[in-house]
Amino acid sequence: MTVADEISSTPAIQRLVAALACNDVEQMLLGALLNFPTAYSKALGRVDADDFFDPVHARLFAGIAERRGAGRMADAALMADMARALDGELRDHGGGIAYLAQVVSAACPPMAVPDYAAKVRDAARRRRLMDAGLTAMVAAVEGEDVNDTISATISAAESLIDGGGSRSRLEVLRAVVAGMERPAAVYATGLPKLDVAMGGGLEAGRVYAFAGKGKSGKSLLAGTISANLNRVGIPHAYIALEMGAQEIEMRSMARDLGVNSLSLRGNVPTGLVSRAGRYAADTPDHVRYVDLPGGTANRLRSEILTAKHRHGCIGVILDYWQLVGGRDRAVTEEEHLRRVAEWLAAAAKRLGIWVLVLAQLADDGEATAVSRTGLTRNADQIFFIRGDQDGNTRWMEMRASRFTPTADVGSRDRPAFVIEGPGPHFRDLSSLSSATF
C-alpha cells in the first residue's frame, strides 16, 4: 500500500470525504432541474457535471445539460433515456427507475437553485482541495524537495479557484450568461480623468500597468490611489518592494492632516504627535501592507494568495515589477520578469482581483526590453507617466488597451494631474478650480 493509499483510507479521512458528499443537496438540485423549466438557467455557470459527488447524479446533470443545450426540455423522455442508460447504476441505488422518481420528488424550489448549485460546487472544490492537501502530505513524507512541494501546492490551489483545465464552448457560454447576472464591480481610483480612460476604474480580473522614469511619481501615484481606495472602504494589498509602508503612510497622514510630510520626522512637536495619534486611531483600515524588499516571485505569489483568501483583498498594488527577485541562474532577466507578468495576469483572472503594477522606464522614457516583452503582452492597459521631472504636472500616454479605445489622459499642453502637497500626492486637475494654477 502506498503512503497516499494509507492516508486516504484512514477512518478520519473517510469521515471527511463523507461529510463533503452532500448527496441530499445534489438530489434536490437535480429534482428542480427535472421539474421546473426555468430552473436550468439559474444553474448556468454555477455548477458542472464533474462537481457532483455521486456518479449517477453527474450523469443525470450531463444529460440535462446536453438536452437543454440542444434546445429541448428536461422531461419524461429524458428520464426514460437516463433510466435505460443508467439501469445498472440505478439498481445499485435501490429501486432502479424509482430512484429517479425519488430525485424528482426531492426538488428544491426554483428560486433556491442558485444556492443549491453553489453548495454542490463548493463541496466539489473542498474535495479537490482535500486531494491537493493529501498530495502535499505524501510529497512531504516521501522526501520531495520542500520548495518544489510548496510551489506545486500553490499551483494546485490556484487551479481550484476556477476549476482549471479546459472548458467547452457551452461551459464558456454558461459563464458568460452568469456574468451578465453578476457584472464585475469597478472601483474608482479617485482620479476622475484616469477612471474615464480605464473604463470606470479598477475591474476584477484585469492588470493595469503604470510605467515611468525614475522620480516620475510612480509610487506617489500608487500611494494616492491606495489612499483613495482606503478612504471609501475598498480592501486591497500594497506590496512594496522599494518604498516601505511607513513612508507611504506618512505621506497619506501628511496629506490628511494638512502638514508637510517632513514635519512628521525627527523632533515632532507634541501637538502634532497628538493629532497623528488621533488620526491613527480614527482612520479607515482597508490596506494590507507587505514590505518585500528583495522579495522573490514565489514569495510574491504566496503574499497575493494570502491577501485574497485570508484578508479578503479584492486588489493588489505592486511597487514595482522589475524588483521582483528569485531569478534562476539559467533564466534571463527578461524571461524571469515575463513569467512574473504572466503569473500576475493569470492570478488576476483566477482570483477575481485587479492588479495595479508599477514599472520602470529607461532614461529615454521608453520601455526597456523586459517591459516590452513582459507587461506589454500581459497587462490589459498600459500607461506611461509623462511630465517634466523638475515640474509638478503630469499626463499619461496610454500605450495599449485590450478593452477600451486607446486615449491619452491629458497632454503636455493640457496636463491631467498635478503633484501637490501636503503629502505629496497626485491630484486630478479637473477637481481643482482655475484659480489654483
From TrEMBL:
PANTHER family, per the entry: REPLICATIVE DNA HELICASE, REPLICATIVE DNA HELICASE DNAB
Listed GO CC annotations: cytosol; primosome complex
GO aspect biological process, one term: DNA replication, synthesis of primer
GO MF entries: 5'-3' DNA helicase activity; ATP binding; DNA binding; hydrolase activity
InterPro entries the record matches: DNA_heli_DnaB-like_N_sf (IPR036185), DNA_helicase_DnaB-like_C (IPR007694), DNA_helicase_DnaB-like_N (IPR007693), DNA_helicase_N/primase_C (IPR016136), P-loop_NTPase (IPR027417)
Reactions listed under catalytic activity: ATP + H2O = ADP + phosphate + H(+)
SUPFAM superfamilies (alphabetical): N-terminal domain of DnaB helicase, P-loop containing nucleoside triphosphate hydrolases
Protein name, as recorded: DNA 5'-3' helicase
Superkingdom of the organism of origin: Bacteria
Assigned keywords, A-Z: ATP-binding, DNA replication, DNA-binding, Helicase, Hydrolase, Isomerase, Nucleotide-binding, Primosome
Domain DNA helicase DnaB-like N-terminal, residue spans: 24-122
Family stated for the protein in its record: Belongs to the helicase family. DnaB subfamily.
Originating organism: Nitrospirillum amazonense
Pfam families: DnaB, DnaB_C
